[in-house]
Write a structure and sequence with these properties.
Blueprint: H1 3-8, H2 12-18, H3 32-35, H4 43-46, E1 52-54, H5 56-60, H6 65-81, E2 84-88, H7 94-108, H8 112-116, E3 131-133, E4 148-155, H9 169-193, H10 200-203, E5 210-217, E6 227-232, E7 238-243, E8 249-253, E9 256-259, E10 267-271, H11 273-278, E11 288-291, E12 298-305, E13 315-316, E14 334-335, H12 336-345
Parallel strand pairs: 1-2
Antiparallel strand pairs: 2-10, 3-4, 4-5, 5-12, 6-11, 7-10, 7-12, 8-9, 8-11, 13-14
Helix pairs in contact: 6-9, 7-9
Keywords: Iron, Metal-binding, Oxidoreductase
GO molecular function: dioxygenase activity; metal ion binding
Pfam family, one: 2OG-FeII_Oxy
Length: 359
């Protein structure tokens, strides 16, 4: 039995930590060049700070057109220049945010025999399972990432409640309702930031698919040897991330790894590959990663607006209204399941899969 096979037959990374290991197994070791934390000596001199946008005024008054214009302008600037921003005062109750984080913790700290019931039936876990566990996106990658993950597919075909483990069932159902509602507002604001009708992205079914990946990063005895998640871009139109206060998320901006510091009660929003494609590079999907840490467990909840491998015949290409003679289409048309299949086969190798579809 290989080291990797032995690992995947056990109770994930948490199982290793529970066994009181003092060294990171070789299957988790990344090359030093990958682990490099290249950054300028003084971030403030270059103003390398992920934008933070306060939505309070438009959440309190949806008809406040002046405040909405200010927010749209900030979202446009952040999406064009960073592909990443944080949002505060978004209207999702803090109690809902706290409960989903606790639900992720409760499930991951269940008895291993309980969690085994939710391990994927197939390599990718997409055999009509709406909920599956154990780093199913990348436990065949090389090296492996220092995290355990469970995934729940929410839309367009939500799971039956009994398909979701009791430890996180109510939290996921409640959280996903708020995410879908807030997601609708975000897609309106992004549509307006593109100079399009506010319902344009919704009409393109960008809001139709949603799945949630809940990450549990156990404390790592040798964090300088591995990563929580390797460098990657997201297989989505938009990703909405809730992170706890431990930190570790970094975005690759102008060849520097810039920390995305936790802000209590805030969401991290980042542009995904499909949004970069349909906006013809106007809104870029930036690479990001998560560093391992000695604290923990670190918990994050990533909501991906994407139908992933589930059936979706819609063909996506650059939005016609954004194209001109000077700005012709830069990408081929593609369906989301087709893209996702190749994206997953790439095994988080650190390269942008979207580049394969450039014209």
């Amino acid at each position: 039995m290989t080291e990797k096979t032995e690992f995947t037959s056990k109770s994930g990374v948490k199982g290793l930590v529970d066994a009181d290991i003092t060294q990171v197994p070789q299957i988790f070791h990344f090359p030093s060049s990958t682990l490099s934390n290249n950054r300028p000596s003084n971030l403030s001199d270059l103003n390398l700070t992920v934008p933070t946008i306060d939505l309070g005024d438009i959440i309190k008054d949806q008809d406040n057109t002046a405040a909405r214009k200010v927010v749209v302008s900030k979202i446009k600037d952040a999406s064009e220049n960073w592909g990443f921003f944080q949002v505060m005062n978004h209207g999702v109750p803090l109690t809902v945010l706290e409960e989903i984080k606790q639900g992720v913790r409760r499930f991951n700290e269940e008895d291993p025999e309980v969690k085994k019931h939710y391990t994927p039936l197939t390599v990718t876990g997409f055999n009509n399972q709406k909920f599956f566990y154990n780093a199913s996106f990348d436990n065949h990658s090389n090296p492996m990432n220092w995290r355990d993950t469970f995934v729940c597919f929410i839309a367009p075909d939500p799971p039956n409640p009994e398909e979701i483990p009791l430890a996180c069932r109510d939290a996921i159902i409640e959280y996903s309702k708020h995410v879908m509602e807030f997601g609708a507002l975000l897609f309106q604001l992004l549509s307006e930031a593109l100079g399009l009708d506010s319902e344009m992205l919704k009409k393109m079914d960008c809001l139709k698919g949603l799945f949630i990946a809940c990450n549990y990063y156990p404390p790592c005895p040798e964090p300088d040897l591995t990563l929580g998640i390797n460098k990657h871009t997201d297989n989505s139109f938009l990703t909405l991330l809730l992170q706890d206060q431990i930190g570790g998320l970094q975005v690759l901006y102008q060849d520097y790894w810039v920390d995305v510091p936790p802000i209590p009660g805030a969401f991290v929003v980042n542009i995904g590959d499909f949004m970069q494609l349909i906006t013809n590079d106007k809104f870029p999907s930036l690479a990001h990663r998560v560093r391992a840490n000695t604290n923990g467990p670190r918990i994050s909840v990533a909501c991906f607006f994407s139908s992933s491998l589930f059936p979706n015949s819609t063909v996506y290409g650059p939005i016609k209204e954004l194209l001109t003679e000077e700005n012709p289409a830069k990408y081929k048309e593609i369906t989301i399941p087709e893209y996702t299949a190749g994206y997953l086969a790439n095994n988080f190798d650190g390269k942008s899969y979207l580049s394969n579809y450039r014209i």
